[in-house]
């Protein structure tokens, strides 16, 4: 037993080193974000917020105070929450209903339509970007909150994943419910949704992470700084305050921490989800 | 939504003495279309129309100020052959291919190494997996901001760490030759998804094969090359294809890394060494208002991605037969 543990020691050492490479950037981000501006520029970088002269603990919240207020990240944080709070549930509902129809309700042309949907999945976002912005303008949603939401209100990939899962459910339960006189929607809400909680959770979590982190769409569809989402505000902070790492790292921490909390809570679900789907990229 | 009305119908429909056949009936047709309608509207307005429109615009000189004029293949030929009009087109192609050729293998090697190590232990494997996964869920904007600071030539952690082993300070993001390796390293730092997928692949290798190899006297190195690598071939192929498609479209990261001068200004980095193809498209579309050229570039990318995808399907078919 002990010999076995000793034999595994090099593996643990290697994993600890790799994990450090993975995690140290975050620790440094946090340390920088809590440092006084005068303590940032030291010859030997410090992974703790220490006073440059005395080497004593000297953490401060003033960087957060600055970026949340003057830096505009407070407003951006609320905007991001607002967008995700509407977009994620609405998208889940639309995708799940469509996926259920594609999986279970036969109607003429259904499978051909599904193939067309799948073909649409191959088109890279950048190809669609220019006309998407244009049509958002035509619809009067450019530079509005709805322009951030409605053009992302469904996802072909999510419909595909949900359809696959719904099709794998045993049909007997639904059949029995139908014979008992249940309608399609009753079956959906009372049987399909409860059985599909794991996959619905995976889709919800990945969708939240994706939209919380998304930079490109807010970048091209808004202009008004009042509408900045968090990634956009962070990018602008990094651009305008490029010499002030303490502000930028405070902003980065605000963007990263909520997602890390979600990851910690739902880690098992997320890992399982990725193992068979791959995360949205 | 429509459920209260529609839910009542099956109660009326079944006729006595005749079992309902599943999945047939007018109400199904109606419900089916109703459920798909929101997704269909999205699909037509924000996917199908934009795809068709982008193709059309790529054959026009649309610049937002005047109505689009049909110019045939002019955008495509100008992009490919006119280096006065489009001085950086080929540079952006070169940057993107170089980045892809370095980032994809680097990501896969580090993902496989991590997966093998995690697969070899029991205790703490979930913790290591979680720590190695953290960079994946981090927003591009934050990744860019953090790494700009890590690569800082004077006060950055990277130079300090390399200084410990005697490597002199480098100005990573301002030296044209170092920009692509520096970006590829960030991509490898974010290899967590590939790691998870490799881990699933490793779990799928039957224990019996491993044992048979041990009985036949194969050492760990031989087992790795003769058993693990061949068994992971489909996984590796999938990851190469999806990784290549993603790397060809790298944008957000370079946008943040090379934004400067305030607000939404962005550059292609020192001597355009970080001018990713999609960044080049973005600049033409949203800075220079050259929508026609931007759409032509994005269609060339689409064709390339379709070729890569087609190769994937061809390979998968071969594997299956």
Would you give an account of this structure?
Chain B: It comes from Acrocarpospora macrocephala. Chain B: The chain crosses the membrane at residues 30-59, 97-118, 130-150, 178-200, 236-258, 290-311. Chain B: It is found in: Cell membrane. Chain B: Its main location: membrane. Chain B: It is a multi-pass membrane protein. Chain A: InterPro entries: MetI-like, MetI-like_sf. The complex is a heterodimer of chains A (281) and B (321). Chain A has 281 residues and is mostly helical. Chain A has 2 domains: 2-60, no CATH class; 72-277, MetI-like (MetI-like fold). Chain A has 13 helices and no strands. Chain A has helices spanning 2-33, 62-68, 73-104, 110-121, 125-138, 145-149, 156-168, 171-179, 184-195, 197-213, 216-221, 230-240, 245-277. Chain A is globular. Chain A starts with a helix and ends with a helix. Chain B has 321 residues and is mainly α. Chain B folds into 2 domains: 3-57, no CATH class; 89-320, Orthogonal Bundle (MetI-like fold). Chain B contains 16 helices and no strands. At the A-B interface, α1, α3, α4, α5 and α8 of A face α1, α2, α3, α5 and α6 of B.
